[in-house]
Amino acid sequence: MSLSKRLKTKTEHAGAKNGGGLRGTRSEAKQSSKKHRRTNSKKIIHEEQVEIHLEGKLSNEKIHPWRVCPYGQHWVKTHSLHVPPSKKDPAGSATTRHEHCAHNPSGRDQLYPEEMSEIATQNFFGLKDKPCPLPLRFKNGSKYDDLIAGWVQYWNEVMKPPIPLEPNCVKALIASESGFDPNKLANKKNSNSARGLMQITNETRKILGNEKRELKDHYIDVTKSDLNDPNNNICAGVRWLIYKRERASQKLGHSASWEEAIKEYKGLSNKGPRQVEKNMKAFLMNDEALKKCGK
Length: 295
Fold this sequence. Notes:
The chain is mainly alpha-helical. It has nine helices and six strands; from the N terminus they run H-H-E-E-E-E-E-H-H-H-H-E-H-H-H. The chain has three domains: 3-53, no CATH class; 73-103, no CATH class; 110-291, Lysozyme (Orthogonal Bundle), CATH 1.10.530.60. 47% of the residues lie in helices and 7% in strands.
């Protein structure tokens, strides 16, 4: 049963239990009705508030067909669990907690590495809209095409940008940021510097997972070391790029192109023409090569 139907059923049952089938005089029925309305008002109001909070999510419990859990929950894979010592079991014990959906504290959408891995494993093989397979002169230049295709499709369908993001754009960005090196750290002496395929900084990582910061929904909860995993890094990087396009649109006063979003992603929005040209050169060259693919 969907969330909508469950909530509706709860409210109808409450009404039938508290106001239906009353016997006796009209006065008794009226008094009984008032009493039940008072004692159940908080419950009914709470149910209405829950339904309002979930408005827009009720028609489809999942934010996307590839997601394992409904909106507001995240998937937890099967794992061992240590039971602490107690009077009955002084030594403690170990048990297995099977995979399940856990509620997010914020009640909003959050992705964790376990579910990112599950989504990629189950859905990314065989997608049609892949980036051009050119390696762009890099050893691993085509190694991550499936991950790029999957996360571009996922975030396009979840965020619905007015101009859909192209897989080639992300591949060209990765080439210019890391040269397809998943272990790249911008500053080897600073673990908070940009890391991974899409060169995500620690500050960006914090913003992506914090519901009190810039993002309003669809958070990504990862550690710094999680970002060394190509799947996690591309998922987070594409989400950040879509947000950066929104920021570029606000700054420019018009619907930003993806090239303008890339400038914002690279921190070039306030830089001079020469620096912009220098830092965008590799991306534009790679993007142009990918666009010619198959022609």
